[in-house]
Design goal:
Strands 6-8-9-11-10 form a five-stranded mixed beta sheet, covered by helices on one side. With 404 residues, the protein is of the alpha+beta class. Among the domains are: 114 residues, no CATH class; 145 residues, Histidine kinase-like ATPase, C-terminal domain (Heat Shock Protein 90), CATH 3.30.565.10. The protein has nine helices and eleven strands. The two termini are 44 Å apart.
Length: 404
């Protein structure tokens, strides 16, 4: 930041100095010998020099007390300086050789300056300053655009991050560090994707062999056989859940922009979760409620929340759709034990197992993480609370689309 600050100060200082020097030189050239004031000043100097060597011309002189001088003016006259007094478009010159008498030359007519020319000079000066600043800002602007594109690509899951060094940019070093950081993050994401897919794929082979070996054993009545078989099924379910979560990273956000009818989607999802009778309440008078999204992922979101409500509830699950001024609200609640308020933030973290869940109701801690990821993609907010039924309440707020 210090480099940026010093660079800006240097550019401003040099620009103002160059512009002022060039403007003054150009103005003096335009005025030339027709500058009456300059000619009069030169005449006063010549006259003062003649008087100092005893060549007294016919010049009016007055005692210094003849005029009501300001203290500063009197001191300057005594020192031998020339005093200029303007009156409208006229100027008179006063000077003294001995500090006792004052000589007066003038008044001389001084034509008013060309204000139009002055305005043109000022505008040209301001334009030149803007050009200097734009030249300084151009490489900075390119660097900032690169930072924006790098961040945008990373947020969209695109890992082909490129950086073109910009010469003379005041933040080139910072941009380069940001590029190195994003490249490292992109590499970590790529490695994580590869690791999850590779591990999941490699685990399936020994699991398949183990299942085949168990199937060949004639020990189905053995309790240990059932435990091993259940553990294998649990590992397979975990692998499937991990792959689902990993594949979410590869979703292109541009795909989440198609019209989705929310009422129909909720009804379809409820019909697929058939373990209990889910009460669906629609509090919107419109026949159709449209939002922008991707139906497959939205169905997974609602399915995960409804499955959790069925799993951790005690037989009662309510689903309601409400209209708010700023969007549509989907509420899923159950009559289970609920979630402690201190664990609301942790609930959406991957592989997070909540303390108040029963040991017999096993899960992998990825369901709510998937819910949060899909909700974020759709610009929706997901919050946890306490239901009036006694259990947990999940509230989703989808924004109203501007255009469908």
């Amino acid at each position: 930041m210090m480099r940026l600050f010093v660079s800006l100060l240097t550019v401003v200082f040099v620009s103002i100095f160059v512009i002022n020097t060039a403007s003054e030189f150009a103005w003096n050239k335009l005025q030339g010998d027709n500058d009456t004031l300059s000619v009069a000043r030169q005449m006063v100097k010549v006259t003062k020099e003649k008087l100092s060597v005893g060549n007294h011309a016919e010049i009016d002189s007055y005692p210094i007390e003849h005029f009501a001088w300001l203290e500063d003016q009197r001191d300057r006259l005594i020192k031998g300086d020339i005093i200029e007094l303007f009156s409208g478009e006229e100027v008179s010159f006063f000077f003294s050789n001995d500090g006792l008498r004052v000589y007066e030359l003038g008044p001389y007519y001084v034509p008013a300056p060309d204000f139009q020319m002055k305005i043109v000079f000022n505008l040209v000066s301001y334009f030149a300053l803007i050009c200097f600043l734009l030249l300084w800002l151009k490489p900075l602007w390119k660097d900032l655009n690169q930072v924006k594109l790098i961040s945008q690509k990373l947020s969209e899951g695109k890992l082909d991050i490129e950086y073109v060094p910009v010469h003379f940019s005041a933040i080139a070093s910072h941009t380069h560090e940001i590029q190195k950081l994003t490249s490292k993050v992109a590499g970590l994401i790529e490695n994580q994707r590869y690791l999850v897919n590779a591990v999941s794929h490699e685990l399936r082979t020994p699991l398949a062999r183990l299942k085949f070996a168990l199937a060949m054993q004639n020990t189905t009545k053995d309790k240990h056989f059932s435990e091993v078989q259940n553990n294998i099924l649990e590992i397979e379910a975990l692998i499937d859940e991990m792959l689902k979560y990993a594949r979410l990273e590869e979703v292109v956000l541009n795909e989440i922009s198609t019209p989705v009818e929310l009422k129909t989607l909720l009804s379809q999802t409820v019909s697929k979760v058939n373990q209990v009778d889910i009460k669906f309440t629609d509090n919107i008078e419109m026949e159709e409620v449209w939002i922008k999204g991707e139906s497959t992922h939205l169905e997974r979101l609602f399915s995960n929340l409804l499955s959790n409500a069925v799993k951790y509830g005690n037989g009662i699950v309510w689903l309601s759709l409400n209209q708010l001024p700023n969007g549509y609200e989907v509420i899923i609640e159950d009559n289970g034990d609920g979630i402690d308020e201190a664990q609301y933030d942790r609930a959406f973290e991957p592989f997070s197992r909540l303390a108040n869940h029963s040991p017999d109701k096993k899960g992998f801690g990825l369901g709510l993480a998937i819910v949060k990821r899909i909700a974020d993609w759709h610009g929706a907010t997901c919050s946890i609370g306490r239901s009036h039924l006694g259990g947990a309440q999940f509230t989703l707020l989808f924004p109203k689309p501007l255009v469908i």
